[in-house]
## 1
Amino acid sequence: MTTPTTPTTAAAAVRPVFQARGLVKTFGRVVALDAADLDLYPGEVLAVIGDNGAGKSSLIKCLSGAYVPDAGDMLLDGEEVHFSRPQEARAMGIETVYQTLAVAPALDIASNLFLGRERRKPGILGSVFRMLDGGGMRREAREQMNKLGIGTLQNMAQPVETLSGGQRQAVSVARAAAFGSKVIILDEPTAALGVRESAQVLHLIQNLRERGMPVILISHNMPQVFEVADRIHVQRLGTRAAVVTPQTVSITDVVAIMTGALKVPLEEQTLTPAPS
Amino acid sequence: MSETTTTSAGYDAAEDLLDRRSPVQRLQSVLHTYPWLSPAMVLAVALVVFGSIADNFATPSNLGTITQQTAVIGTLAIGQTLIILTAGIDLSCGAIMVFSSMVMAKTAFDQGVPGVPALIIGIVVGGVAGFVNGMLITRINLPPFIVTLGSLGIFTSMTLLYATGRTVRERELAPVLLKLGNPLDIGGFRLTTGVLAMLVLYAVFAYVLRYTAWGSHVYAVGDDPDAARLAGIQVSRVLLSVYTVAGVIFGLAAWVLIGRVGAASPNSGVDANLQSITAVVIGGTSLFGGRGRIVGTLVGALIVSVVDNGLSLANLDQAYKQLAIGILIIAAVTADQWIRRARA
């Protein structure tokens, strides 16, 4: 895997980092995705919203490798990609954070960050005795957490179950951001959290954007979407109904687009991010 | 909802650092971090109590005897700990052990296989038994309780049929099979090589659980299998490996058993299945998985032996042993439930 290059603002408006073209997914006679498109540009937070049954979740599952689409293409950095399992998407640098707080509570922060890709000590200790590089992993875990502005967590040997929900979600996000990932998908990251904890996670998303990491955020929470998203992808009836920015539309308008009461002409949509 | 938007950037960091816990909460959190601490305290209390009421209790030779009495269950309970850490249970471990011991003894005595290969065959039989349990649990998705309840019956019966009701006596056994019964005197403490073997196994698995990726995965799978799967761990493969490794440990326990009894008998170790679970639970490992330390199991096994030995030296009715152990089991699980709710 090549190391991801930091997107420059000049290139930002040029090519999407992750793209879906005409995705179709059917379950028997139910059409979940009907030629759905999606464009994610470097360094932006793209919110994906939609009513229940709009195909939001199917779209995300295709992007994260949980579903294999019946038709359509996905392009990562302009190259066509196919995933048959979530692990394959992850290997290509697409990390997903789930709403269910997918951490192992009894393990410490560092172990959770490196769960499934532990690092062993160099030399004979690592090769013969399979000894983990605990110190190294803790050091790097602290670095990652600091980068994301989660400086309050200093003890990387602290079990995750002693953390608040927001902090746990922070560990999940740090894990997603830690391993040379190109795209982070956050699937309802605040759905299980309280108000204050949600605020921590939103803060985290802003930090990810500042670091130039492209993020796809799935959320039901309109105020949150309007707070952090650069662009909003509205999914309706299995396809992309509109792409707008929080600056040009109101929450009421977006709800109207979601329910089909309002149609946005193509020329008024924000299909590419504004050059900065 | 508008409050969410205004406070997102600057939540109060100092609030996270403030320690406003009561002493009880602190105790809870200490026990949470060191799950072997409460069994260690129970062991200390038991040692002091029996030391003061029974004259011959606190002598090096008696304490050595206690460790000898712990060796078989202590070894068996290592495998049981691995399984319980994954939120599983093994009711058949003792039956597998006894079956392995008969295989070792009879392949050497009846078939004339040399001692060392016979020993290895017996250990492999234990591993295969664990592997089969693991396959049934991971491939057919049967609950561990049911699978091992079934294999308990199967291995008990196979042992009796295979042994044809006959014990392989000491002079009939290959010498290597008796090796772990050899006495070992360390500073007046009368130990056996079997005790030493058990301690080495504890050290090995303490290391493996603490310092290897496999160890982390065992905890993660027991903790929350869905989270482990989302993190990219192959949960069934970890489970299968745990049951297989545990089976190998049961095979090693068979070797310790022959050394301890000085014979291979189909009727030895009949209570071992539940006793191993007792040791693990009293040792502070959670039956819900993902929590516990292997050293706690050693302490748990020692507690059972100390109570057993102390009651007989104090001329008290052995019936009190079951009472005391029963109370300890319930107390340990209650404590575990309480400790699990801790917030550091």
## 2
Amino acid sequence: MGKKPELLVPAGSLAELESYFEAGADAALIGEEKYGMRLPGSFTITEIADAVKLAHERKAKIYVSMTNLISNELLEELPLYLQQLEQAGVDGVQFGDPAVLQAVRSQNLTLKLHWNAEMTSTNYATANFWGSRGASRVVLARELNMDEITEMQPHLKLESEVQIHGMTNIYHSKRRLVDSYITHQGKVLQQPEREFGKSRGLYLIEAERPEEKFPIYEDGNGTHIMSSDDICILEDLHLLMAAGLDSFKIETLLKDVSYNTVVIRVYRRAIDSYFNDPGEYEFDESWQDEIREVQDPDRELSFGFFYKEQVY
Amino acid sequence: MQTRERQRPKYTGKRYRLDKPELLAPAGNLEKLKFAIHYGADAVYIGGQKYGLRSNADNFSFDEMREGVQFANQYGAKVFVATNIYAHNEDIEGIEQYLRNLYDVGISAIIAADPIIIDTARRVAPGLEVHLSTQQSTLNWQAVKFWKDEGLPRVVLGRETSMEEIEEIKKQVDIEIEAFIHGAMCSSYSGRCVLSNHFTDRDSNRGGCCQSCRWKYDLFEEGHQEEVWVSEEELAMEQGRQENKTGITPLPLFQEEDNPFTMGSKDLCMINHIPDLIDVGIDSFKIEGRMKSIHYVATVVNVYRQAIDSYIADPENYVLRPEWLEEINKAANRPLNTGFFYDAPDHEDHIYEPEEKAAPYDFAGLVMEYNEADGTAVIQQRNHFKPGQQVEFFGPNGTFFKQTVGVLWDEEGNELDAARHPLQRIKMKVDQPVAYFDMMRKRK
């Protein structure tokens, strides 16, 4: 029997953090927009320190996202921020841009680094490359299939994290595309109509796919378009548990706390049940029903790319 | 026309010279490679049978690469190969052999994004330069320095970097910087888009991009809870689904007459800013477009070659020639802009209106021979043309004139009413001297 994987969820506030730990999360991903991408909320450095205390009391972990594509302007601030994170005692930092690695090296910090380059972390050899440069975990791309994910495990020299539930980002631009479009229409909007953030509830419909709603929002990092479906790998979670992945992530972005709490509870139950006795483990359809009950009827629960063959 | 004011060096009177940047052009196949180089590219980048991001392109076999390198060598030009996919497990086997083969056929550099390809190249083909692809979306000097420390001599920056940012990067790191200066652009951060994967199961980061960013979308806002009138029939039909039908109606953020939402960007064109690009220290000026036509590649390369040479020869008296932009517009497929170089793209930088994809001019014929004695040329037919039609000749050594097509003869001297047969050799009078490999274009 392999190691029990960690159940990881992004959290947007200390209150959310408590609810999610209560529901069974082992670790939380937090941060602020300036350094991290697509987070459900913002934590100042003081709040991060509080979050670490709260988590460690429960033997849970706090990871901080620094996954942004970094511009020159932000470089100066990286060393101090990383020092503060180390002092706060965070359990890991997610990064995609090598500038973060450079800053960690220059400060001789002992922070654990999780390499997360979103859709571009697609093979074990590249993960091992980042491992040899200082990363202790790879966050796998959501566009990989089950075979690719499971066959990677024996080759990996670092921990692996995979998303098992929720939406994924499918397009990220530095451009302000909603603002641009609204201006093109000749509309002169004042605040708050000119605000196209996460809470606005904007989505796109592609002409030939009227049933699929793709959430879109803008923030300081540009424009983000999200998947129209939510990954839900619950039914086949045992395959990932058997393969020995280290961390399972439930994406909480653009969902309310009550939904996320239900989902976390269900996966908690499945993981515990499996590790109680892997031989006897059986997927229970009623677990899935609990999620279905709270699922937005406009958003399909799907296997994402787990069972898709992609061509090129 | 205007002369650009240059900032004077500290000691006036002392000559200072500028290093000439490389002009790097796309070559979708062997023929395009020859045109790109003949028309002035210092280097071309091509795709091989594997690991490239244009799986639909007419990619090069190793034999074709060898021939391309030999051709390039005659001009002192280099050939790079794009190996810019993000590899999956199944792609790993075979990378070593592929990279060795590239080196063996004389390729100067690969353009790579995935560290597995970068690392493997450094190990098995140390003579092959590795240039970091724009797919890595490198925007800051520390990231550039990271790749320099990894042994890379060149980084292709993300298309989101501004002039100021490039200047800072050049100040901080002693490395070659390559930047796109012309052509189509991803509107997303390169590599950070999987629209194709979601819409068509085609992997964009392995060459399957189906340009979903240029499709049309409707933008809505989730409605707010409100009372809606539901008829009894509807109520009966919807029985059991009432909770889901809470009376929320989505709000369209467009009117009937508005253009739909799109992410599609205008194309990059920096011909008006050559002095800035040179002064800021960009080492390689890259033109996008391995899928573009011969006419496009030759026209665009020809223009940038002239502009770069003209500025380098005499920066003080450099003049932006209006015909350069006119030339580019003859080959352009889309409206043009300056990307992120000077400011962030806004509503004027995306294409909301229906697109007219066709460039206004076509490649009609290729000059094979010129006979000075009788002012005739042998033209290889590349598209239909006929007597009375207006055509233009242009070429890399200054050929540039318009004329009306006169009498056409085939090789046996028979008069033709039109040039109809692909690649047929046709003789005609030309108004001015032309040279081998000059092109004749016609308006569509």
